Write the structure tokens for this entry.
Amino acid sequence: MAITTCIFDAYGTLFDVSSAARQAAGEPGREALAACWQKLSADWRTKQLHYTWHRALVGEYIPFWGVTQDGLDWALAANGLADDPELRARLLQLYWELSAYPEVPAMLAALKLAGLNTAILSNGSPEMLDGAVKSAGLSAVLDDVLSVESVGIFKPAPQVYDLVKARFKCAPDQVLFVSSNCWDALAAAGYGFRVAWVNRMGEVMDILGHAPDETLSDLSSIPNLAKRF
């Protein structure tokens, strides 16, 4: 069936999760962060994801903002910066204002011009996602922003992907699902979506029993891919 709906993961897919630490590291007086911001950012993201998986497995859901703070606290401690509460507050503030990748606005606008539904499906809390979407100026090119908070469990639980069918009344094979997280992309493929994995960093594909339909280096070709499907 033809693609009618394009669904995007938010963090790492539309929004650059490293931009918070990168921006803070360039501010005056942040020499300690500047020396380790790339590692801190990677540690933060890794723990943020690990904590979502742990909470999903043990059935102890908290909003994504909670695991985002917990992941940052671990990363700050691991990089010797746990004694800087002002830095912690600044990084959390910047996480609400993450930069979109350069190709995102034009790509989403092209999908809307083609008459396709566009939406985010994210672990993010609704307030966090609203802040990121508004900061990046994407409100006019998204039909909806779907959060796992409505089902109380994180990706890759199938209840999360069910949200797309419920919202857009579409069959799974009418959905092009796009994520930079390989585990998310492969879970969506197993669910029945058509899938594009955005592999910006040239990572090795996870071995999880499924494969994406396409592997891309950025999002610029998504409108043509949606037409081709």
